[in-house]
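Exercise: predict the fold of this chain.
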Amino acid sequence: MSRTKVLVAQEAGACYGVNRALDMVRAALRDADGPVHTLGPLIHNPSVVQELEREGVDVVQHAEERPGGTLLLRTHGVTPDEEELARRSHNLVLDATCPFVVRAHRAAEQLTREGYQVIVLGEPGHPEVEGTLAHAPGARTVSSLDDLGRLVMGRRVGVVVQTTQSRARLRRLAAELIGRCEELRIIDTICEATTLRQSAAASLAERSDVMIVIGGRNSANTTRLAEICRESCGRTHHIELPVELDPSWFEGAPVVGVTAGASTPQQQIDEVVLAIREMVGE
């Protein structure tokens, strides 16, 4: 155990969109005249959301639930109808939607205007996917190749992608669509930070005996990181907090790798790494 090394992936943790949203909500707490709410969880990290609640930021599920004050739109985006209700019911609305999610919305709108049958590669029911679908009336979600069998394919098909999907899944979908339509247009809306984190996690997993993936269990990008790590490292564990760590995980493990989803602040990573190092005696 004393020879165990704890290595952190070169690309891990909170991305630009998450840091931007956290800066916005803390500025609102400082400057806003009245209560501050978020429309849905600001990010998919339960411990951060709970911390914000302790600081006075309540989560509302519907814009009209608590009218007045300041309302932040979550990083995953909202539908146009939800945004309209928010602006009607609150004194100030701050748009914390990740710019990469906004890009997916715009891509879906563009493909719809140009007459494509729009397919969104993503997870059904995920707030980001629901927001993207709302920008492209008639669009359908595909989460696996099996879903294509239930679609009546049009002549012209356009694809946009949930920002946290992997390019490997996009390539598989593209290969399956070729030959099913006359014209196929793909707008790659995967976030570059997602790609970098996935690549770094895969590389570290190949060299590690145990992988620890930190982030909310409701986080799509963190769940994807855990799936990628398990492909190379069977002893992969997805956790949210240091208290979930089990010393038995690290027995006979010369190298422990650590990565974290895009909704995981650096402090949370540091706390987990410190706890692991104390367990293994590094």
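Check your answer against the key: The chain has three domains: 5-13+193-280, 16-97, 100-190.
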